[in-house]
Write a structure and sequence with these properties.
By secondary structure, the protein is an alpha+beta fold. It is built from five helices and nine strands. Helix content is 36%, strand content 24%.
Length: 130
Amino acid sequence: MIPEKSVPSCRIDKWLWCVRAFKTRSLATEECRAGNVSINGVVAKPSRDVKAGETVAVRMGLMTRTWRVRATPATRVGAKRLLEFCEEITLPEEFEKIRTQRVQQVIAREKGAGRPTKRDRRALDRLFRP
């Protein structure tokens, strides 16, 4: 089921921008050049064409997001139409890494920061409340 407005292949940096993985195409290009984007396990340059059926993995901070390409859009698509062009296959463990990092940031205090304030204690209570 290929959407009407799709093309056989397009550049990976353009595809990442079209499916809203990055806010701008130049950000997608920078990530490709930095080696954070791979297609089928091979690091991809920004000009590499992506086709339907391929797997795209993007390292974003601590986690690696993974998509299966369903089609390649001609232009940037709305959030409601994303499922026509890509399928999210990121493992749940990757999302758990982000949640764990957030908890550690709340718990960790800089050395010499003193006692937690009332606001800090309430935030910790909310976090650990059953």
